[in-house]
Amino acid sequence: MAGNWKMYKTPAETKAFFEKFRPLVEKSEHCEVVICPPFTSLAAAVEAAGGSRIGVGSQNIAWAREGAFTGEISGPMLKAVGATHAIVGHSERRQYFGETDETVLKRAQAALEFGLTPIVCVGERLEQRESGGTEAVLVAQFQNGIAGLTPEQFAKIVIAYEPVWAIGTGKTATPEIAADAHRAIRAQARARYGAPAADATRILYGVCVKPDNVKSLMAQPEIDGVLVGGASLDAVGFASIVNF
Ligand code: PEP
Prior knowledge:
- This protein has 244 residues and is of the alpha/beta class.
- The protein has helices at residues 11-25, 42-49, 75-81, 91-96, 101-113, 126-130, 134-144, 151-154, 175-193, 195-200, 214-218, 235-242; strands at residues 2-4, 33-36, 54-58, 85-88, 117-122, 158-161, 202-206, 225-228.
- The protein is globular, with a radius of gyration of 17 Å.
- The structure holds phosphoenolpyruvate (PEP).
């Protein structure tokens, strides 16, 4: 159960979140919990999560170890601050910051090289869904991005399916629509890496997951977890999602 805070929360707000959130998930051993704050709040999150099972992830990661890459943050830097995960290829990065399947692959490879678990996002836009192109988009994102990983690397990633057309609309895909997309992604994984690897891969569902719809989403066997945006900003709300 992963929370993507996007561009919200200062270090002080992060500390306050964890003070409320930690006791609410202390006994939640049925799942892995990861919070992905902005870069500037990573250190505060790692400190506040210290001694708990809560992982802390970044929302992006550079493909290079170091160098002249203004505005980028590298794997060794994230590792040094105590991060465990890195979101890669979020639709907002693809839409506003020119992220492509090729850069998504490079960033995922960098995360793995430096010991971080990449949460690799895929998903179709509205016009792609309306023109019946959902599966083709997911196939292309898989083939041009994820499929470049070795089997050993693939075994360590988490995939997140986010139907981009639903972001910010208050709507979510029905559990059945989400499960169909997850099946299409898993079929790609099966063809490239074999059934055991595909079955073992965790595919999270994202977009407008809330305390009141998480149960029906998680009831789908194809859905292994959720990537939560807005609703992860509230400690009580996100805790109730974790403890669905
Ligand atoms: C997201 O964009 O990663 C996301 C899950 O957003 P929300 O839950 O706010 O729709």
